[in-house]
Amino acid sequence: MKYRFEDFELNTETLELCQGGVGVPIEPQVFALLELLVSNADRAISKAEIHDRVWGGRVVSEAALDSRIRSARQAIGDSGKAQRLIRTVRGFGFRFVAAVARPGVVEVVAPFRQPEAEPAQAAGAAGSRKPAIAVLPLTLLSLDTRYEPLADAIAHELIADLSRLRWLHVISQASTFKLRGREAEIADVATVLGVDYVLTGTLSLFGESARVGVELNDARAGAIVWAEQITIELAELLDLRNQLVKQISNAIELRIQNQEADNIERIATENLDAWMCYFRGLRHVNRFNAHDNAIAVHLFQQALDQDPGFALAHAGLSFAHFQNAFVGYTGQADDSQHLALASAERAFDLDPLDPVVNLMVGRAEYLNGRWEQAEPWFDRVVKLNPNSAPAYYNKALVHAVIGRKDDIPGLSEQAMSLSPIDPLQYAFLVVRSIAHLTAGDHEAARRWGERAANAPLAHHLIDLIAAVCNFQAGDLEQARFRRDRARARSPDFVRADFFRSLPVRDAGLIRAVNEAFDALGVA
């Protein structure tokens, strides 16, 4: 059989590849791979099928397959960056996308094309599945090779930490470390490994200090999403390496979620698939206002209409209902409490090992007044993902409400250090103010309360806590300012709403809140 595409001819009888009538040197195994792809140009070929047909079912390394694909592309004038003829189907395999003619057969297999609205679809391509990331080994910028294992250890621990995120596909070290020392464009690395994001990094030494530099690249957009340089004393690097890795992995988590939402921003809502709906829903639910929260509910529900078994969409829906009940967006707190718990329990049934899912169960528990039952869930989240800043914050909130104030500063500090740009930063801060208020340190409570109220995305409950702290510290003018700001944000708010959202049990804290509300005229 002869297959013709562009000015090439692939002859399966003579095992020859010709271009313009001139033979192209090609290895037998590369020819077999090319024949498989060309003869099946109407569909994508999985890696498993390639192993079966080219290697006779023998399991081979990713590097071996990548090498043969690269050779096949070179033989026909293609490359991993261009993908003009052989296209990578990320997370699956490869597809031959040029028109192929078979002598004696009228049919011409049309090249693979994106559906209509190609630019928008391409921008959001990652929404059809989990986004994928490759963490490359860090480059040691020093002649002192004793520190090479340390550079490798940082990359290895980043891979392990990111692998705890069940919404993110993380390429194993066995594959990424094979690219060590190779000069390659980010797009080529992404093509070889089948990923959307590539994290590169360096470890440089100067004097008694070390500097870790990392760069997160979106290969689809050809853009740097985030970059950071962290300088640390060389003597402390070994001891603080774990904390360093946690900070980097948390930043990557937030940046990728935000980038995924950016990539699908231009796509009409009715054209979103389940993953696209989920990431867009995350953007809206983390804006912490009634309008965006309602949009988030719609998006998470749209994701579930397409995929009822999507655990994270159930978890997202639980968080949106939690906000409706906790902040009072809808005025139907009891219904929202029930929906938050039902969605969280459904998510847990589907994926009991997902940290985000477990976090939502704990939140739903304390939303329904079961504070003691909530705390073990947050402990479980930390075991599943020690980097979960919201788990430490929520545990601190539980302790604040039930009056266990001693360890609140440590829990809050842990949350802030793990995720210094978290959307919930105001919440990390406000529990510190509650702890100081409970302890009777009103000036410290005022300082932390003001920091919380001034943080981005803080809502009216945070203003009210700041008002209480200011009143108890003797700053009546600032207390009135915070009260007025809370009223402007939630005109129908009454005292009972505060104690419904935060049913505190510590007698001193209850007394402090009531004294402030009485003086400030909060009904």
Give an overview of the whole structure:
There is one protein chain. The protein is an alpha+beta fold and 523 residues long. Strands 10, 11, 12, 13, 14 and 15 form a six-stranded mixed beta sheet that branches. Strands 1-2-3-4 form a four-stranded antiparallel beta sheet, with helices on one face. A hairpin with a 2-residue loop joins β13 and β14. The longest helix has 30 residues. The protein is elongated, with a radius of gyration of 28 Å. About 5% of the residues have low confidence.
Low-pLDDT parts are 104-128
The number of distinct helices, counting runs of at least 4 residues, comes to 22
Residue share in helix: 55-70%
**Inertia-based shape:** elongated
Compute the CA-based radius of gyration: 28 Å
* Beta-strand content estimate: 5-15%
